[in-house]
């Protein structure tokens, strides 16, 4: 099965730039697609210094829904939304004052890959953080979700008026240009070793990311368990110490792992069995409802899964209805209108509403969406006006 690769390099223009992110793209683009992906064939999508967060989201969403392995090579800088304290990938127009509107929220990455089968997604990053974000990451590690591999490094801001080089990602690209793609854990260690030759202080300074949910860890040995999403760099040595330690062989036959409903649902979607996938998700939602009660995070999660599944099945109306219900549940539970989960639910309801072919159904849902847009305007300017204009056109057709 062919793989999909997203090459994304982003950093602000002007004085706010911390890293020359786009300089790595020519080196990565010179690597054969099959080597980038680790598959026989692959489709590669390249984004260099994008301007709009919605454009990045569209490309990411399209790539993440493709079947087969998905690999993201991401180079850029992180900045913090000071209002909600959420990290964003800074884009070309991002400044410290506008990051909430011009940056790409990091949690959107988790949202777009959360339905993928565990182990089928890998994110390789070379990031620089401004001073405020760097302090934030000390207590709030960067993650990409429970089923995805994450490798790379995060560096603190360079000296004033200096622009850093993405030495880690350039090392990754240089290694891959040999035509051989080692396992990601090995590629990561080789890149750390190589880049430390150009930047000897990196091993002491950087946050090293090495998360592989498919790697077993030894039971009953807490000191050997990895810290998800965050690992300080090891002290300098001839080679960096691997972050993950494989589990020792056990003479006893381990019990079979519990079934993963997300993996079962993903397999059903990839084979076109949308009704079966929806039934599996509905069953999980009912079980969560019985165990935790209405409005619980577990229940909301499975509602969101069902909304995505309706979208994959081409049922825009059902997807819109579920996203509207998700937004209502979150607001009823006391979440703020600007909370990421609330904004995402309304944005997705809006997107699906615009794709409903049946005018009568769209007219039925329009007022509820307009009411939500009054409370949750979202990040895109003019979203409420867009709903009202489209609803006026629909009503004129009666």
Shape: globular
Separate helix tally: 16
Percentage of residues assigned to helices: 40-55%
The SS-based structural class is alpha/beta
Question: Average pLDDT, to the nearest integer?
Answer: 84
Which ranges are low-confidence, i.e. pLDDT below 50, for 5 or more consecutive residues? 217-251
Terminal-residue CA separation? 47 Å
E-strand count: 9
Q: What can be said about the biggest beta sheet?
A: 9 strands, mixed
Series of H and E elements: EHHEHEEHEHEHEHHHEEHHHHHHH
- Rg is 22 Å
Q: Strand percentage, roughly? A: 5-15%
Give your account of this protein's structure.
This protein has 398 residues and is α/β, with parallel strands linked by helices. Helix content is 44%, strand content 14%. It has helices at 25-29, 33-37, 53-64, 99-102, 106-113, 131-137, 167-176, 184-198, 202-205, 261-270, 274-292, 297-312, 316-332, 340-353, 359-375, 383-396; strands spanning 3-10, 42-48, 70-81, 86-89, 104-105, 121-129, 149-155, 207-211, 231-232. Strands 1, 2, 3, 4, 5, 6, 7, 8 and 9 form a 9-stranded mixed sheet that branches. A hairpin with a 4-residue loop joins strand 3 (70-81) and strand 4 (86-89). Helix 7 (167-176) crosses helix 8, helix 11 packs antiparallel against helix 12 and helix 14 packs antiparallel against helix 15 (359-375). The longest helix has 19 residues, at 274-292. The N and C termini lie far apart (47 Å). Residues 217-251 have low confidence and may be disordered.
């Amino acid at each position: 099965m062919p793989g999909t690769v997203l090459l994304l390099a982003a950093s602000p223009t002007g004085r706010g730039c911390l890293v020359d992110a786009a300089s790595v793209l020519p080196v990565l683009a010179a690597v054969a697609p099959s080597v980038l992906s680790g598959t026989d064939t692959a489709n590669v999508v390249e984004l260099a210094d994008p301007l709009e967060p919605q454009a990045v989201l569209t490309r990411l969403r399209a790539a993440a829904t493709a079947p087969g392995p998905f690999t993201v090579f991401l180079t850029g800088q992180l900045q913090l939304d000071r209002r909600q304290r959420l990290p964003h990938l800074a884009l070309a127009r991002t400044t410290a004052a506008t990051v909430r509107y011009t940056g790409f929220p990091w949690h959107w990455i988790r949202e777009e890959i959360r339905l993928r089968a565990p182990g089928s997604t890998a994110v390789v990053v070379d990031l620089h953080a401004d001073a405020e974000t760097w302090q934030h990451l000390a207590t709030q590690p960067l993650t990409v979700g429970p089923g995805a591999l994450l490798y790379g490094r995060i560096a603190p801001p360079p000296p004033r008026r200096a622009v850093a080089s993405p030495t880690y990602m350039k090392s990754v690209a240089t290694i891959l240009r040999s035509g051989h793609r080692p396992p990601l854990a090995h590629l990561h260690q080789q890149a750390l070793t190589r880049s430390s030759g150009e930047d000897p202080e990196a091993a002491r300074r950087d946050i090293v990311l090495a998360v592989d949910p498919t790697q077993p860890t030894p039971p009953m040995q807490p000191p050997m368990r990895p810290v998800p999403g965050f690992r300080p760099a090891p002290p300098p040595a001839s080679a960096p110490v691997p972050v993950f330690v494989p589990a020792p062989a056990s003479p006893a036959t381990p019990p079979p792992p519990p079934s993963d409903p997300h993996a079962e649902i993903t397999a059903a979607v990839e084979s076109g069995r949308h009704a079966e996938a929806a039934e599996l998700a509905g069953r999980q939602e009912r079980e969560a409802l019985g165990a935790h009660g209405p409005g619980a995070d577990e229940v909301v999660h499975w509602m969101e899964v069902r909304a995505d599944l309706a979208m994959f099945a081409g049922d825009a109306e059902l997807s819109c209805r579920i996203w509207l219900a998700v937004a209502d549940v979150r607001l009823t539970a006391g979440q703020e209108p600007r909370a990421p989960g609330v904004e995402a639910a309304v944005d997705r309801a809006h997107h699906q509403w615009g794709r409903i072919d049946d005018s009568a159904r769209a007219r039925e849902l329009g007022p509820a969406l307009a009411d939500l847009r009054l409370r949750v305007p979202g990040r895109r300017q003019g979203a409420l006006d867009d709903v009202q204009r489209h609803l006026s056109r629909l009503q004129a057709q009666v």
